[in-house]
């Protein structure tokens, strides 16, 4: 019997050993797959295909392994600097015969980011053809397509330019019906972030500021597109789109007659045109293709001696730690602290694409940058699409601030929101009572309502925070607090006006900021010094990247369907508005009307919207 038991133990040991060996081999192969990068020899000749089914963002958001494994619908996000690096390489790469812009399903990327991509496309177009195709062109898609050598449109398609603006949701009536009492604490005539909770429409002051901002952005869009494509009769087509379509009797023909596009043909004809330039494809491919993802991996930007660290602040700024695509105050603060402590970096560049968020988290990031400057490290800020409110706060610890004319910035102001539900609870027969030992006992009382003492304390704290914001800006921008207050009050500015007001120093992109940081650190500006100090993805994110879908699944790609889905996203925005009211930091330095990259998840359902508003 002992012999049998011994043999069994040996067999179990062998089994455990084999399982362990298998697990080691599996994770070793997984690690190799995660770190593998295709060599340049693996890239053949043909057309570099930029099939953009999703959006271009500063920093793609993390995708959970659960979402990847369950095959949920996910919006693809493309990193801006990867797209530009690929185009810069393609311009001088003899293997790339042409660049193809496939813009069906493209959901945008922000005016500044798309302007940067457009400039990179111009470099390619100076050396080889750039061909664009879509079944429909909206503002963002056409901002890219305008830089192409040839613009193709499906005969059943159309071009439709809308300009910035649109409507947003206001919840005053809903909150009154459910008996919610929203206590708002704010400073600033133009701090419209709280208006959806206390008004049923936009205030005159907010409308005035938004009108001026959107007019400037729209003027910038028309100037860029008109310069890239002079033959397009943009002014007449935008002023009377219905008339242009009616005159030709066909939406696609109207775009052709206006010089918006060069050719009306289906995808099969377009593919044949690409094959004439790039060569015939293999098997079922219509032409020789170079896929974007492996080309990006093979053509990663040089990082040189890593003397300049680039820190990204992308998305809403929140307290504590956060994954990519959201700016966690503690996460970014630690990245800066680690860069300073390492002694490897001579300067830092802060790349900001954020509408702000938590004032406390914004100050954590700014304080880390102040500490870096105290160590003698120059800090230069590069603003992307948006650097407003908390996104502007973090820029106030820098030697120089770069922005673009279409950057959305300013929104210097803070606010607080606390909801209570005493009125709604009374409707269903629930009341609250108790004993208080001080005026602040049990405050904020979400079931019984706040009292005057608590409201006074919070309002004073908001006013104090606003004064601190004014002093930070005044010290950084060399203005008196009174002068800052005159251009603050929560008002949002375009980058061109912000430069005139002294809120930014110069126009330029992230490369200009890196060059300036190198100059301030007395480095050779001709050398590639920069390295991006993003939080490295963990095994969960790497797993999701491997096993998740490469592209967005399903869904129509025609322009009207895409625009309809974009407008439906307004309803999904109600979830975020509910979270802002219920779960965010009480003290916010955030611009709610400023755009922010959407998370790569499927839109919220009606049930999710209701759940969020009933107690997110």
Q: Can you walk me through this structure?
A:
With 616 residues, the protein is α/β, with parallel strands linked by helices. It contains 24 helices and 22 strands. The strands form five sheets. Strands 10, 13, 15, 16, 17, 19, 20 and 21 form an eight-stranded mixed sheet that branches. It has a six-stranded parallel sheet with strand order 8-6-5-4-1-9, sandwiched between helices. Helix 2 links the parallel strand 2 and strand 3. Helix 10 crosses helix 11, helix 14 packs parallel to helix 15 and helix 18 crosses helix 19. The longest helix is centred in the N-terminal third of the chain and has 34 residues. It is globular and about 85 Å long. The termini are far apart. The C terminus is likely disordered.
Taking all Cα atoms into account, the compactness measure Rg is: 27 Å
Biggest β-sheet description: 8 strands, mixed
Arithmetic mean of pLDDT: 86
Structural class: alpha/beta
Q: How many beta-strand runs?
A: 22
Please tally the helical runs, counting DSSP H or I stretches of 4 or more residues.
Answer: 24
Described by the principal axes of the CA atoms, the overall outline is globular
Brief synopsis:
The protein contains 24 helices and 22 strands.
Features:
alpha/beta, 8-stranded mixed β-sheet, single chain, about 625 residues, 6-stranded parallel β-sheet
Topology at a glance:
Elements: H1 2-35, E1 46-51, E2 54-57, H2 65-70, E3 76-79, H3 80-92, E4 96-102, H4 111-125, E5 130-137, H5 139-145, E6 150-159, H6 172-178, E7 181-186, H7 195-198, H8 204-228, H9 234-239, H10 241-248, H11 251-257, E8 263-264, H12 267-278, E9 289-291, H13 292-298, E10 308-314, E11 317-318, E12 327-328, H14 329-342, E13 347-354, E14 356-358, H15 359-374, E15 379-388, H16 390-393, E16 400-403, E17 408-410, E18 415-420, H17 422-427, H18 452-477, H19 481-487, E19 492-494, H20 495-501, E20 506-507, H21 510-520, E21 530-532, H22 539-547, H23 559-582, E22 587-590, H24 606-613
Helix pairs in contact: 3-4, 4-5, 10-11, 14-15, 18-19, 23-24
């Amino acid at each position: 019997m002992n012999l049998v038991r011994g043999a069994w133990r040996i067999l179990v040991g062998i089994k455990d050993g084999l399982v362990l060996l298998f697990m080691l081999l599996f994770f070793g192969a997984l690690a190799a797959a995660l770190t593998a990068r295709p060599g340049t020899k693996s890239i053949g000749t043909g057309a570099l295909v930029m099939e953009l089914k999703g959006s271009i963002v500063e920093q793609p958001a993390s995708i959970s392994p659960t979402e990847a494994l369950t095959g949920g619908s996910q919006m693809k996000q493309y990193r801006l600097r990867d797209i530009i690096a690929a185009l810069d390489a393609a311009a001088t790469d003899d293997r790339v015969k042409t660049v193809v812009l496939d813009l069906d399903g493209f959901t945008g990327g922000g005016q500044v980011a798309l302007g940067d991509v457009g400039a990179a496309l111009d470099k390619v177009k100076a050396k080889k053809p750039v061909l664009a195709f879509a079944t429909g062109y909206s503002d963002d898609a056409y901002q890219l397509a305008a830089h192409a050598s040839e613009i193709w449109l499906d005969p059943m398609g159309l071009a439709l330019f809308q300009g910035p603006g649109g409507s947003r949701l206001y919840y005053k009536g809903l909150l009154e019906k459910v008996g919610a009492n929203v206590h708002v604490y704010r400073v600033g005539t133009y701090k419209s972030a709280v208006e959806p909770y206390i008004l049923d429409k936009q205030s005159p002051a907010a409308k005035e500021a938004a009108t001026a901002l959107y007019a400037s952005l729209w003027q910038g869009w028309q100037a860029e597109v008109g310069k890239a494509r002079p033959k397009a009769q943009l002014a007449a087509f935008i002023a009377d789109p219905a008339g242009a379509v009616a005159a030709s009797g066909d939406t696609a023909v109207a775009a052709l007659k206006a010089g918006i596009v060069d050719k009306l043909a289906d995808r099969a004809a377009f593919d044949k045109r690409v094959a004439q330039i790039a060569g015939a494809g293999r098997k079922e491919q219509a032409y020789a293709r170079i896929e974007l993802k492996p080309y990006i991996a093979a053509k990663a930007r040089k990082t040189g001696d890593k003397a300049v660290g680039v820190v990204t602040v992308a998305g809403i700024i929140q307290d504590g730690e956060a994954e990519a695509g959201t700016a966690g105050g503690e996460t970014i603060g630690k990245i800066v602290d680690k860069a300073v402590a390492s002694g490897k970096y001579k300067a830092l560049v802060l790349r900001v694409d954020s509408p702000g968020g938590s004032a406390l988290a914004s100050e954590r990031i700014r304080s880390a940058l102040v500490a870096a400057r105290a160590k003698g490290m120059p800090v230069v800020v590069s603003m992307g699409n948006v650097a407003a409110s908390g996104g502007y706060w973090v820029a106030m610890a820098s030697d120089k601030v770069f922005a673009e004319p279409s950057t959305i910035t300013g929104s210097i102001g803070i606010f607080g929101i606390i909801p209570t539900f005493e009125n709604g609870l009374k409707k269903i027969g629930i009341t609250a009572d108790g004993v208080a030992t001080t005026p602040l006992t049990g405050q904020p009382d979400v079931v019984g309502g706040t009292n005057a003492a608590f409201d006074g304390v919070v309002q004073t704290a908001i006013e104090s925070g606003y004064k601190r914001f004014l002093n930070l800006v005044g010290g950084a921008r060399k203005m008196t607090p009174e002068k800052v207050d005159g251009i603050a009050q929560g008002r949002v500015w375009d980058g061109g006006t912000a430069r005139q007001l002294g809120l930014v120093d110069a126009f330029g992109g992230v490369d200009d900021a890196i060059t300036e940081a190198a100059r301030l650190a007395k480095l050779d500006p001709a050398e590639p010094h920069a390295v991006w100090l993003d939080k490295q993805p963990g095994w969960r994110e790497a797993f999701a990247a491997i096993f998740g879908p490469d592209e967005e699944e399903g869904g129509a790609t025609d322009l009207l369907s895409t625009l309809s889905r974009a407008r439906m996203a307004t309803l999904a925005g109600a979830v975020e508005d509910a979270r802002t009211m219920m779960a965010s930091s009480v003290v916010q330095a955030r611009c709610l009307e400023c755009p922010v990259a959407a998370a790569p998840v499927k839109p919220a359902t009606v049930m999710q919207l209701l759940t969020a508003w009933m107690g997110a």
